[in-house]
Known about the structure:
With 414 residues, this protein is α/β, with parallel strands linked by helices. The chain folds into 2 domains: 18-90 and 102-185, no CATH class; 189-410, 3-Layer(aba) Sandwich (Rossmann fold). It contains 14 helices and 15 strands. It has helices at residues 53-61, 72-87, 97-102, 114-133, 155-162, 173-188, 216-223, 229-232, 245-252, 265-278, 325-337, 351-354, 360-369, 395-400; strands spanning 18-23, 26-32, 43-47, 64-68, 136-140, 169-172, 190-191, 202-203, 235-239, 257-262, 284-288, 297-302, 338-349, 372-380, 403-410. The strands form 3 sheets. A 7-stranded mixed sheet has the order 11-10-9-12-13-15-14, sandwiched between helices. Strands 1-2-6-5-4-3 form a 6-stranded mixed sheet. Helix 11 (325-337) links the parallel strand 12 and strand 13. The longest helix has 20 residues, at 114-133. The two termini are 31 Å apart. Residues 210, 212, 239-243, 245-246, 261-264, 267, 290-291, 303-305, 317-318, 326 line the site of S-adenosylmethionine.
Amino acid sequence: xxxxxxxxxxxxxxxxxxxxxxxxxxxxxxxxxxxxxxxxxxxxxxxxxxxxxxxxxxxxxxxxxxxxxxxxxxxxxxxxxxxxxxxxxxxxxxxxxxxxxxxxxxxxxxxxxxxxxxxxxxxxxxxxxxxxxxxxxxxxxxxxxxxxxxxxxxxxxxxxxxxxxxxxxxxxxxxxxxxxxxxxxxxxxxxxxxxxxxxxxxxxxxxxxxxxxxxxxxxxxxxxxxxxxxxxxxxxxxxxxxxxxxxxxxxxxxxxxxxxxxxxxxxxxxxxxxxxxxxxxxxxxxxxxxxxxxxxxxxxxxxxxxxxxxxxxxxxxxxxxxxxxxxxxxxxxxxxxxxxxxxxxxxxxxxxxxxxxxxxxxxxxxxxxxxxxxxxxxxxxxxxxxxxxxxxxxxxxxxxxxxxxxxxxxxxxx
Length: 414
Ligand SMILES: C[S@@+](CC[C@H](N)C(=O)[O-])C[C@H]1O[C@@H](n2cnc3c(N)ncnc32)[C@H](O)[C@@H]1O
């Protein structure tokens, strides 16, 4: 059963920001497309294969947009070369003896309060990096086709990401590569071991939808003991369903009725496709809503964004949750929506704790203030490669990260 799923727009909106440039002594304009919400550059130069990486990098750093008219594959190489210039290790600044004496004492290899500061510096560097690389622009013709020699066919990828469009537009090359990459994932899908019945099962993430590529939390959901309350009412909620993967795991585990909620229309369409292709459309109902659907359930699962900071683009909304709004909204709504002896399952990485952005004590206070008790905790270490990458700016925090399934119950059941 699928409810209230917005369909893709029949034609993407034609209003929005415009980019302007001078070419052949004429002023040109086109629609500006940026999912990262970057503004169109004020100054734009038309460039081609004769542009060196050093010059491109310098101009991009100055905020000059570079509208590419050369070969598509050369543009990709240029983008890589610009990225290498940004990522090149910087020489450490020389610190004078007086400055050194003024530095706070170093205990465990990191300066006090350095972890939180390192996170903010990391986010700033990431956003500057994105802005610089986004200055390399490509022209897109009708139906999302890149207008450059040796460009791949991008019509379907563009339509999947942005809806049908007959208008020309200009987009940062890096963003268009993201669209093409997402299309490949959507075609290929991700094998989800925990969904395996007698055959291999896949989830097909859409552009801009949280992909369960780091699958360790799926193991937690598929192995945890189901609450007894399900025997009387076999009904579960999956809050913020994304691709629909947790709802599908609950269906594989035999829960008869599942209501999966989502606030993002793209994610809803993605979950709808996945649930249909997995054959669970009769068991899983999708609802577009903020947090909880109506009514009560014996089990309510939620994997909210885990870093309490502002997302820098719509694509980051599944990871960054300003002021832990979704997390707190989930905790505060549980008592109202849980059957008396039902359980709320919260999946939460503790990366924010290692980054000094949220403390364990704060989380436990929110749980208690929401009228809940912790029934049990099951934890797993991330297996993703970044956790072992010593060159990563956040290595100390990432290597200590643990993801926990918090099993929560009502402090005062009826
Ligand atoms: C970390 S992702 C998890 C997705 C999926 N449950 C999974 O485990 O793969 C968080 C999801 O919550 C959704 N979301 C964020 N705020 C929400 C809200 N207030 N109500 C419903 N869904 C929300 C996001 O769109 C995103 O799909």
